[in-house]
Amino acid sequence: MIDRFKEAVNYFPDLVAVIEHLEFFQKEGVSKLKAKLRLFDGTILWVREIWIKDSMEAYSYYWLRSDETIIMGWDNAPHHKKIKTYPHHRHIGDKVEPSTKNSLQNVLIFVENFLG
Length: 116
Description:
Layout: H1 2-10, E1 16-27, E2 30-39, E3 44-52, E4 55-64, E5 70-75, E6 89-92, E7 95-98, H2 104-115
Antiparallel strand pairs: 1-2, 2-3, 3-4, 4-5, 5-6, 6-7
């Protein structure tokens, strides 16, 4: 898991300026990762993944302005049951929209394309 994280981040050297925070925990087939990435434009990407064996069971990726207000976030927390892609969804400001299952690499690609 930590290798996947580093590989994804290292693939975007012009986007990710620095890893400001990184926590990793692994015990009995459960791995948890939490990271704060500072992007080149001063925005922040919070990353949280929980893996059981080789399967990602929970994730959240939140892209924030430097004042930590949400630009966009993706997660699979089971709290928006009316979304057709439940539990996967995306937050854009205060709105919640359908989204497919995501990964750190897909989110970094999205952010890179968005920023041009």
